[in-house]
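In the previous chapter we treated chains in isolation. Here, by contrast, the input contains two separate entities that must be folded as one system, with a combined length of 801 residues.
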Amino acid sequence: MTLNTLWFIFIAILYTGFFVLEGFDFGVGILLPFLGKNDLQRRTIINTIGPHWDGNEVWLITAGGATFAAFPNWYATLFSGFYLPLFFILIGLIIRGVAFEYRGKDDNPKWRSLWDWCIFGGSILPAILFPIAFANLVRGVPIDANMQYVGGFFNLLNPFALLAGLAMTLLFTLHGACFLSIKTTGEIEQRANDLIRSLWLLVVLLLVIFLITAFIITDIQERINLFTIAFPLISTVAILASGYFLRKGQFGRTFLMTCLTVAFFVLTIFALLYPNVMVSSLNPNWNLTIENASSSPYTLKLMAIITLIFLPVVLIYQAWTYWIFRKRVSSEPKQLTY
Amino acid sequence: MDVLLLARLQFAITIIYHFFFVPLTLGLSVVVAILETIYVKTGNEKYKRLTKFWGKLFLINFAIGVVTGIVQEFQFGMSWSEYSRFVGDIFGAPLALDSLLGFFLESVFLGVWIFGWDKLSKGLHAATMWLVAIGAHISALWIIIANAFMQHPVGYAISDGRAVLTDFSEVITNLPVFSHYPHVISAGLVTASFFVLSISAYHLLRQNETDLFRTSFRMAAIIGVIATLSVGFFGHTQGQELLETQPAKLASLEALYNTEDPASLSIITISNPSTGEVTLDLRIPALLSFMVYNRFAGEVQGIYQLQKEYEEKYGPGDYIPPPTILYWSFRVMVGAGLLMIFISLFALFIDLKNLYGKFPWFIKILPWMIALPYLANTTGWILTEVGRFPWVVYELVKLQDGVSTVVTIGMLVTSLFGFILVYGLLISTTLYLMLKYAKTGPLVVVEAPAEVSSSLINPPESQ
């Protein structure tokens, strides 16, 4: 395996970690105004992700930094080309992060409701826009011979990308509902369970339609390999298995399956891309690839060694925090932190 | 308005705003960790209350520092894509390591600290705050390393039209790192110390929780004395390095138009930089030479000579960072810094001699002095970053060669207004909350009924 491939895998792992973890807290944020019928319930809901959302978000920051370090041209073309969607994602993440911390700092109901809607908006905006951006990487966007994105904002809002946005947002919502189901008790748990049941079939349909469309509209037929077949299959099997556990009332396993669904969905996107990192819709020779977009071998090697040492360390201590806060969050006011 | 100017303006606004919150995060994390450690060691409840009080203010500040930091990272690619392409091989690495080695540690353990009061042992809980503090300081180190490359590029070679890393150890041991990093870390402690000092003075003035706030006051005064002196020392080191690394910045911040040997130090200079016409120029002979050479002789190059030299080397263009901005930023920063040294010394003197009653005017003005570190932090970064003009990477990439080519004026105007609007709303909210909780003091946290305290950071049963 070349260093460039290794780095492609690292970045795939970082984004996968981000979407699996932040995916459920996007979902929880989206569900907040609907599953929380009063202030106490909303606080309970926020407390389920309270200890985690910040650490989850660092996966994105690390993925961004790693893309910059390992594939500067990918980072430069993507971030300057997708300027406006990224701007809206940033605004979403800003108001969301602040809202978690600030909503509990004043008792005024209007104050709290304002921040609740900020959490909702700040969760749904990136949940829609990230998949739109990733779908466009696979579908291909106008990139010229100088590696510059020459399309506009509305180029990105094509049906295929919008389908990805819709499918993933609903998948994140389902994922978030599963998380709430295993982290809460009583009314909230019940409402989360009901929601999972009514949302499940729709998510399955959208996901399968998206995956089939992805195989039809990209040139993947020419680059079929083990991963491009296995990853979408695992993702599909996992979402079906989640339905199986759902019927048996085993919500812990349902959540595990939605984790796998999200993970292998993201991995599918990366498998479809490889060895490209951005596809040019103008000329295949102008694609950004793991070769022409990458840093020098020295940088890749150095960073690979550091990542191989420290990424497992991060995984271990982050997993430890999930272990510490493994109990369900009760709706006892004095137990709540936010 | 062109794309370059808008991109610069956006970068300036977002970085100044971000750094408005970061120093307090750095310094206060250490203060809170120390307080909690004392609590664990002594079991004295007073220190637990102090930990919670300052910890809560720390959290209000932390949230906004995090979210504005993401903007910083994304912005290199969004508005400065050509810069990112050119230096990504070198500059990307410290940014990635910032999050992998520092930011993860800080964020993950802060979550544990906030929610872990009754889930971890006392010692382990205090340890999580130390991990937050260590994470924050590791993070700052990598950012300074990245910035040092922009100020003074080393460890690279140019290959295929871009900079390629040749020696990573040179990048991390780059000369400015050794003065900038301790300068910034000390500035964080100064910010925290003045933050604690002024809020403590506010409560002491009102005879509120005197015992608690005198403990905070003393701690802040001690940290303040050490940190303000340290900031000054490493600031001075930086100034001396400029002679070697960035002579144009030095000439500009001293408004030194012509080369002098020995060089004089400006007390006040009022001039028109575009015409070079000097209205008022009061200088102390040879003092600038002394500042940079440690002796009363030595040549310091002037603006005109440097401009000519750069034009010969790099072609026509403006090579001098705007003297008006640099000259005044420098003086405000140094002025605020010196004032803070005296204030901390005097505060410590008052506390040690127990003269609180004798100098009521001092305790009265102290709450206002919270503005000083913010003034110094902001002008300090303006000096460093505006002083980089006209380069993104010093003497390697000019600003106009770094800006994104595909980003339009419309996009930048949209994002610039968006950020200004959101940031404006956030800073007002943050100030409102800070003032509310700082003024309330720790008393209410303890005695509040359940429905009030439930809105605070920590569950009451762990008080």
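Chain B is about 70% helix and 5% strand. The two ends of chain B are 55 Å apart (CA to CA). Compare these points with the single-chain example from earlier in the chapter.
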